Amino acid sequence: MTITRRDFLKSSALISTWAALSACRITEQFLGVVSDASYSPQTEFAPSPPLTDKALLLHTLRRITFAQTPEMIEHAQKVGLDAFIEEQLNPESIPDESTAKMLKNFPTLSMTTSERLLIERRAEPVVELIKATLLQQMFSQRQLFEMMVDFWSNHFNIYIGKNLCKVFKTDDDQKVIRPNALETFRALLHASAHSPAMLIYLDQATSRAAAPNENYARELMELHTIGVAGGFTSNDVEEVARVLTGWSVVGPRSDRSDKGEFIFRALRHAEGNKTVLGMNISSGGEDEAIQLLDMLAAHPNTALIIGEKLARRFITDRPSAAIVTSLATVFTESNGDIRTILRTLFSSEEFKASAGQK
Q: What is the mean pLDDT of residues 34-47?
């Protein structure tokens, strides 16, 4: 795709307006969002009529891209739908020089964390990250990749306006989400747990043995992995909070050269054995949390949560128990390989019969 300077300037103006509006707090009532509490997995999936090959191609492109272009449709028809999906699942094979060139307009993206901390206007990295994200969604040829970046950025949600998250969210985008968006869930979970933006956002950076903070411990289980149906108790939350004590961030006022990076502070860690979801975790410093993350990443409920969320994103707002179970099974058998799960999803009969379901 060729992007003219006029196209770029028009898009930048649009995005600047969007970025300004995004600073406003928009309520669920205003957006008309339906609460997750209303979701019923028993709701029957009503398949759409069978699609012709061309209709299936267009349906697929609508679901795996932010917007299909005539060039994209022509290319998909030429190589075939299966080959097009495989290309999108391997974004590094897709030339995208024009998008990369546009990103050079945002200098904070290529700064180190220490350099970004020196910027007087803390909103500058925020605005540039928002602009860069939207431009990539609009113009990148790697559309499925951008869809999954958006998906995981929502799953591992961080409010960019909180304190140093204004500076650290860029690193979360570039070092956590993007490198792992099509890899394995385990890799994503571990990267997110080491993310300074996540540790600041959920107050983990200041958690210590004498006063363990439970915010990240609770979100780690409830939202990132096993979900509310995963069977964890308030005692599990307390134990996970103790496991995670010491996981912190090098502060901006530190005389260290790695300001804004992850650090394990052994002196803040709660020593002693812990028990989480019936699993004994022997006292072992930083390694305790590594064991915990591995256990949560491989948990059957995590497989179901991720399977359901992917089905809701790409198939229908109320997926059947059958497709969720199928995706969860593939999650478990592939050790959370995201490409493998997506291949299964896109080849499923429910996906092919879901036109008009979103």
A: 47
